[in-house]
Design a protein that fits this description.
Strand order of the largest sheet of chain B: 3-2-1-4-5-6
Shape of chain A: elongated
Number of helices of chain A: 12
Number of strands of chain B: 6
Strand order of the largest sheet of chain A: 3-2-1-4-5-6
Distance between the termini of chain B: 57 Å
Number of helices of chain B: 6
Helix content of chain A: 55-70%
Strand content of chain A: 5-15%
Largest sheet of chain B: 6 strands, parallel
Structural class of chain A: alpha/beta
Largest sheet of chain A: 6 strands, parallel
Structural class of chain B: alpha/beta
Shape of chain B: globular
Number of strands of chain A: 6
Radius of gyration of chain A: 32 Å
Radius of gyration of chain B: 16 Å
Strand content of chain B: 15-25%
Oligomer: heterodimer
Order of helices and strands of chain B: EHEHEHEHEHEH
Chain lengths: ~260, ~140
């Protein structure tokens, strides 16, 4: 299914704006705190109490009145406190906004770390006796769905960035690379895999992949998709154990069905 | 003349799927007519002794020429989902009782083919995946 991608230029400017806004709010809270402290000190004449009120302003914004209860019961500054409650509420709102944007900046930073890739790398490193699927074609999508249903671990190699995104969106583990290259097959721990399935759209690239996989591992089971019967012999010679032409399988099924009608 | 045949199967599209269907029908001694747009391919089939028509299988004229009036089944197996859907609709319009087999490349199209009146639908990716899963189950230790 076609999927839409965010343009890199848009995401960069959005990140810049987010960071700019976060900085502005940071300075706003500093300024707001200084103003609150100054105003309260003007009424109370006590710097320590002024600091207490300023720090607790976030509760006043909720109208929970936490500090009101505490300080009124002690009988401290109840009159001047009422006079400055408006300032405290505004200060509290600014603090809430800072917390919200602070969290947004932290999330932005975390997303830049690409945690999903790191987790995928850790998961891949523990794999053995898994299956490597090469090329995320329509056939590969179907195979991956069936592998998942059967609880079989697998990785998918593809070099197309759009396919890599598709793989991630479908909840699978991608390996970015060319499945005809031994180095990229090694990234998918092909040497430890029990089987490899070539689902590329092109018989030539699938054949190259078979040759590379067999060179990398003498024991791995190689399954390959072909588009014509002429290619099947070549695939077997290159080292594929099983070669499947999807259309042929369907034709056999239909032929048997029509013979029985 | 194909038009005068009875109890035969019409194969629309002589690609890998169509050729395999023909092979199965020959093994079971069932007559068939092939419709394909490729004139050279049709000529080759005729030289091999098979009934074949060069034409567009999506048109009712071509289907009538292939003897749809008395055929027992029709296979719409072009490598084009939209054309297969067209053939299914056209065939069902002409014959309410004919058995229609076809192929689809994705689930969305498959649903449309069922709605259009197809009796049996194969999806090459599904068939291939089933075969591959059988092989994998056989290869992997229990």
């Amino acid at each position: 299914m076609p999927r839409q991608k965010e343009s890199p230029e848009k995401s960069i400017s959005e990140k810049g704006v987010a960071k700019g806004v976060a900085l502005l709010l940071f300075f706003a809270i500093i300024l707001s705190t200084i103003i609150s402290l100054t105003v309260i000190y003007h009424f109370t004449g006590n710097l320590k109490a002024s600091a207490y009120y300023t720090l607790s302003s976030i509760f006043e914004t909720n109208e929970e009145g936490f500090s009101t209860v505490v300080f009124s019961s002690i009988g401290m500054f109840s009159l001047p406190f009422d006079a400055v409650i408006g300032v405290l509420i505004i200060d509290g709102i600014v603090k809430y906004m800072l917390i919200g944007f602070g969290l947004a900046v932290v999330l932005e930073l975390l997303s830049g770390v690409d945690i999903i890739s790191k987790i995928s790398d850790l998961t891949m490193g523990k794999m053995s006796s898994h299956i490597v699927v090469c090329g995320y074609s329509a056939l590969a999508e179907r195979i991956c769905g069936d592998l998942k249903k059967n609880g079989i671990h697998f990785l998918i190699i593809d070099k197309d960035p759009e396919k890599i995104e598709d793989i991630r969106e479908d909840g699978y583990i991608p390996v970015i690379g060319d499945f005809t290259e031994i180095d990229d097959l090694q990234k998918a721990y092909t040497q430890d895999a029990s089987a490899i399935i070539f689902c590329g759209q092109n018989d030539y690239t699938n054949l190259l992949g078979v040759v590379s996989a067999r060179k990398l591992s003498k024991n791995i089971s190689i399954i390959c998709r072909a588009r014509s019967e002429n290619t099947v012999t070549k695939m077997h010679r290159a080292g594929a154990e099983i070669c499947i032409i999807p259309e042929l399988v369907s034709g056999l099924e239909l032929g048997q069905k029509l013979s029985g009608v | 003349m194909a038009r005068d045949m009875e109890g035969h199967v019409i194969i629309c599209g002589y690609g890998i799927v169509g050729a395999k269907i023909a092979e199965q029908l020959i093994e079971n001694g069932i007559n068939f007519v092939v419709i394909d747009i490729d004139a050279a391919l049709v000529q080759g089939l005729k030289e091999d002794g098979h009934n074949a028509i060069c034409g567009d299988a999506t048109t009712s004229t071509t289907l009538r020429e292939a003897g749809i009036a008395n055929a027992k089944a029709i296979a719409a197996v072009l490598d084009n989902d939209a054309k297969n859907l067209f053939i299914v609709i056209t065939a069902r319009d002409i014959r309410k009782d004919i058995f229609i087999a076809t192929r689809a490349n994705d689930e969305f199209v498959r649903e449309k083919l069922v709605e259009a009146g197809a009796n049996h639908i194969v999806m090459p990716q599904v068939s291939a995946s089933k075969e591959i899963m059988k092989e994998i189950s056989r290869m992997r230790p229990k």
